[in-house]
Design goal:
Structural class: alpha+beta
CATH superfamily: Reverse transcriptase/Diguanylate cyclase domain
Number of strands: 4
Strand order of the largest sheet: 1-3-4-2
Number of domains: 1
Order of helices and strands: HEHEHHEEH
Helix content: 40-55%
Oligomer: single chain
């Protein structure tokens, strides 16, 4: 039951409720953090053209990519339909990571 209340069933990423709780705790404790929001461009087109089952596969693959390619001290959350968030404490964002990561539909 705890698994279902913390994780999104499709992507297996932490869910929006967990994200909201963590932000509240960070604010209450004066912990600085960074948040990056990611959105799948034209996701409606994927669902309309290939069907919702294929759209679900894209979301599942995105969840897998985020879980394997993102550093363990960065947390990823499913925030909305095709919206995903990354949250990390301030020290991670002030490091030498200036590159922009972009995942294309071909990689999903």
């Amino acid at each position: 039951m705890l698994l279902n209340s913390r994780y999104d069933g499709l992507t297996l990423l932490l869910n929006r409720k967990v994200f909201t709780r963590q932000l509240f705790r960070c604010k209450k404790s004066n912990v600085r953090y960074g948040v990056i929001m990611m959105d799948i461009d034209d996701f409606k087109h994927v669902n309309d053209t290939y069907g919702h089952i294929e759209g679900d596969r894209v979301l599942q693959r995105l969840g897998q990519l985020l879980q394997t390619e993102i550093k363990s001290d960065v947390q990823c959350f499913r925030y909305g339909d095709e919206d995903v968030l990354r949250r990390a404490d301030e020290n991670l964002y002030t490091s030498k990571q200036n590159g922009k990561n972009q995942v294309t539909m071909g990689e999903l």
